Amino acid sequence: MYDFYLLDEELTPEERQIRDAVREFVRKEILPHIGEWWLKGEFPTHLIRAFGEMGLLGITTPEKYGGLGLSKRVYGIVARELEYGDSGIRSFVSVQNSLVMYPILTFGSEEQKRKYLPKLATGELVGCYGLTEPDAGSDPGSMKTRARKVQGGYILNGTKMWITNGSIADIAIVWAKDDEGIIRGFIVERDFKGFSTQDIKTKISLRASVTSELIFEDVFVPEENVLPKARGLKAPLMCLTQARYGIAWGAVGVGMAVLEEAVNYAKERIVFGRPLTHYQITQEKLADMLADLTKIQLMVYRLADLMDSGRANFRHVSLAKREAVRTAKRMAEKARGILGANGITAEYHAMRHMANMEAVETYEGTYEVHTLILGEYITGVPAYRICSEEVCGD
Ligand SMILES: Cc1cc2nc3c(=O)[nH]c(=O)nc-3n(C[C@H](O)[C@H](O)[C@H](O)COP(=O)(O)OP(=O)(O)OC[C@H]3O[C@@H](n4cnc5c(N)ncnc54)[C@H](O)[C@@H]3O)c2cc1C
Fold first, then answer.
1. Is 63 a catalytic residue?
2. Is the CB of 162 under 6 A from ligand 1?
3. Architecture of domain 234-392
């Protein structure tokens, strides 16, 4: 594994233990099968309980709710090691941690925390997060899903689109506008009447991941399933900040995987009578990849420190998500090229990672959206209107 600036030497013994356990798990349980799962468009649901047993669901969740109560840095390391395997696997863990457990922990009642968090931590329950709609992606404030107040709760109507884990989820965190047009959060259980899902099967990116449409037709959600402390767009955006942080770390895992694969291949592949590594053009490609990887490794490590010391804001996270994913995509493309024709097969990893990076660059704020967040920070001009200080917060 390439760690040129020895950054992992900063890890505590406990953090190293978790890293090594996840690393071994990925090599044993994921890498031998991932090409096949990806081609078949399957997510390995049989591994969910194993993720729970390893503590990967609820890494930063306090122990009293069944989590490990560990740092954001550990969460990052786990995301990196999982995405070394595949972005779909990391996405599952990101959604459960950052988009389901985090909102319940941050905006939920004590009863909601006790009811859902311990079961989410073991994997007994799976969650999903419904913010995007067919006509509202980068601009979630334009959502059409409505929550009409009725006696004892709300009636939900609308559609959510592109939802990771949708059809395998037992609960969905759903964002909808109430009668006053304020965005509220709801915990919708799978068996609530009028709630159905439909999988999106035609993806040619992130294929080892379930992506679904969520449909709400007059779904009654009782008052006790409303997140009491979530009001306005800031709440769902705060969840995205958490998830984007993990995505940045995950992209580093992709960078490590494709550099390693490219080097190993280039050492073995003989062209014009010599291994590919003996040519200067190849060495330049590999040196560029090492430089790219080291830059994003440094970035996420520093971001982890800012997160753990409470000094990070959403803009810091935007920069890391934007840069890490674009860099990993570029690295995967280079690695794919070094592998020649073999590089376009699922027997190797580079092209699968390259294809996955397309979805990862789109979800959780596209490259352009993060550019605009940073552009607003630099110039003071909100070139789009979603992410002012007021709605994004820290
Ligand atoms: C595999 C996958 C899994 C996902 N999982 C989830 C999930 O679990 N939960 C969830 O809620 N959502 C999820 N999403 C949805 C994802 O967050 C959205 O796709 C994303 O926010 C972009 O929205 P959009 O696809 O509607 O694109 P649009 O918003 O329609 O954007 C189209 C293009 O326009 C660009 N653009 C947008 N605004 C501007 C602007 N102001 N200036 C210039 N260019 C602009 C975008 O960058 C993009 O290139 C997932 C998506 C994918 C692909």
1. no
2. yes
3. Up-down Bundle (1.20)
